[in-house]
Amino acid sequence: MKKFYVFLAISLLAGRLSAQEPVSYSVEKDIIHSFLTDFDYDTIPLTVSKVMTYFNMPHTTGAGKPTDPVNRLDVPSPVKLSWEHQEGATAQRVEIWDASADTISFTIDKDASEYDLYNMIPGVSHQYQVISVKDGAEQAVKTGELAPTGMLRWIYAEGTWNVRDMGGWTGLGGNPIKYGQLFRGGQLTNPKDPYNVLLTDKGIEAMRNAGIRAELDLRSSTQAHYNYASFAKKNAQNKYDADFTNIATTSARMWQFDKDDSNIKAIKWVISELKAGKPVFYHCQNGADRTGTVGFLIGALLGMSESDLAKDYELTTFCQEAAVAFDPTEVGFARLRNYEGKKGSVDASSDPKDYMFAPLIDKLNTISGPSIQRKIYDFFKTGKNGTKISANDLIWFINYMTGYTVVDDITTEGGQLITLEKGQQKALNATVSPENATKKDITYSSGNTNIATVTDEGVITAVNCGQTTITVRADDCIKTVTVKVPLIESKLPATIKIGDQTFEYSSSATNKVKDGSFEYGYFSEWMTAKDTAMTSKYFSLTKYSQNADSVYLESKINGDEKSEGSIRMEWTTPKNRAFVFGFRVKNSTNLTTTKNENLKIILTNDDKADDDPAGYTFEYPSYDGNWKEIQYVFETTTRNRLRILFTHLSKDGNNTCFDNFYLVELANVPEGATFVNTVKEEPRKMADNRIYNLAGQEVTNPGPGIYIKNGKKLIIK
């Protein structure tokens, strides 16, 4: 028999047409309808409860008995069918159907002349007839058409409470979530006597007529001991026709939804059951917190708004049975919010925020994603403790429930890091997967258009040196691509000539200063005296007058400033090699600087402290307002650090300017070559208890000879 939950068509079966006008009625009680439509939590703090504004019934414990639907807000409004009773009838039944489903029959008392019909799907027209049996013959004593209205579909299943269909809410793409697939509610068995099914025969009939064929129990093992669905029946093979599983979740407190992988396991099972064609009823004890958390995760995954997610969670408050279990006062009804500062739990030891919805939203801030839907999607896809849901299953589930296919991933050409030189272009040629995604329009944006721009078609253009991010977005899927426009190395001179000596570069040599030029207006990777990146506080990048795109470094440090304004750069040089270090320098005026001792270029042993005077300090250059090329040629006897240190370079508005740094290894250095402008040696400080030769070099394994230790001669035989 086809399931009642798939009543979707509005046409009528042939042979059962009714000439009567459809009877329109709302399945939502007035108070519930007002709560759903009068406001949005989008504009109201999530810590504020709106429940008490709409709940105007006296709250008594007796009114919440699950077998009494009259004063309960957690059941739908019934359709009250009435007809003229046929005298002498020996049996009666009500039949209901629509064009997409087989008939569902309800056996009623043979003497009845009215019947309350529950649990129909909003927005779907249904045909019905009342059949009376007399003298073995059947007669339709009443026929008609019903047109239920509203959105929220409470389910009246005698014996339990707070049961509602997750269908009807607005999901992704503005599409309604499908009715009759997912149901949430209260427990079906007594936790103290798990084999005592709370559902009555009518309750079981209601669950089965709704099409439910799988039960997910979220209670702990001490509350749930049975191993089959409470509404299951055995088939011809003596097997239950409804599936069951118990996945104890730890999220009784909403904000703990990601504490472990239990919620992921629960929803993974839900998807597997739906793929098998078995609608699922999931529940804990009262259908409030554990159930509310799973409901939130499912609703968020399907694209419900934050306001609707909050309303769906707080609807539990309208179930008196659930509220009474916590607190028989208005606090119990507002337990999902911090209503007027009152605690939402009778447990005095718990945090008032434990049961609130707002902490769950706050927790989402720790998960990446542009929307709640994408945050939850990525959370399930990434998983926890090795438990995750595949993208294919997530895509299927969302499409099945909403008719919307999400973009799962975006692929771009060139990888996640693209390096371009100034003026170069690169087309990203982005594509989305799956190919049949509902909304696959791709947009592009640049994090810094001064470094790189991107067109609507995804073509990147490098503008200036630096690094920025290109964001590619389709639907709520985001991919980022890092674009790096490298700094320009200084152009090396054709030859190195100092005095009458000419040196050649090593055939394998490259410029070790990768940011030797300040082209394109980018600060080099210089560090300050406080080991922080250089800023424009003490230095500026000044444009060349003849080329506005090219700049040089100009010091603005006043000679009286503290040394925090210093900047430095270091390069490591291997031992027993020859190098040339060069740059160009000038003043911002035509004044001549003959000895600027605040510019230091030091070659020091790699293992020496920064302030160790041992090593070589190159000669201070003299310069004026014209660019002057400076070159230092040197040999290393050990592994060295070459450090250039600028500090207090300006005085009286006469700023020192630099550009075009380079450091290159040389080849074919003639033996005995004199290095002009090379070094002057400062007194070497010898450490205590170390052994040095007469040249001041430390010796670790001295052989026979004369050495120095602690400032005294040491003879080793």
Structure summarized in a few sentences:
The protein has 717 residues and is an alpha+beta fold. It contains 11 helices and 40 strands.
- Number of DSSP E strands: 40
Mean of pLDDT: 82
Helix content: 10-25%
**Structural class of the helices, strands and pairings?**
alpha+beta
What is the overall shape?
A: elongated
How many DSSP helices? 11
Given as residue ranges, the uncertain stretches (5+ residues, pLDDT < 50) are 1-19, 58-64, 338-350, 676-684
> What's the main sheet like?
7 strands, antiparallel
- Nearest-angstrom radius of gyration? 40 Å
Q: Beta fraction of the residues?
A: 25-35%
Distance between the termini: 108 Å
What do you see in this structure?
- The chain has 717 residues and is α+β, with helices and mostly antiparallel strands.
- 13% of the residues lie in helices and 29% in strands.
- The chain is built from eleven helices and 40 strands.
- Strands 25, 26, 28, 29, 31, 34 and 36 form a seven-stranded antiparallel β-sheet that branches. It has a six-stranded mixed β-sheet with strand order 8-9-10-15-13-14, covered by helices on one side. Strands 27-30-35-32-33-37 form a six-stranded antiparallel β-sheet, with no helix packed on it.
- Strand 28 and strand 29 form a beta hairpin.
- The longest helix is centred in the middle third of the chain and has 14 residues, at 262-275.
- It is elongated, with a radius of gyration of 40 Å.
- Residues 1-19, 58-64, 338-350 and 676-684 have low confidence and may be disordered.
